[in-house]
Design goal:
This protein is an all-alpha fold. It has 3 helices and no strands.
Length: 49
């Protein structure tokens, strides 16, 4: 589930959910959290050396 889905489930704004996770990071196991990179970063190719 993404933060947007969880926010909808708990009927709060996504921003508020993300703030609470940041404030209570010790309560959330690291293996359940990840940050999705934007597609722009995923499609980048290394430049010439």
């Amino acid at each position: 589930m993404l933060a947007q889905d969880l926010a909808e489930l708990y009927q709060v704004e996504t921003k508020a959910l993300n703030q609470q996770v940041k404030r209570n990071v010790g309560k959330f196991p690291e293996r359940y959290m990840f940050h999705r990179q934007s597609n722009k970063n995923l499609n980048r190719r290394p430049g010439p050396k």
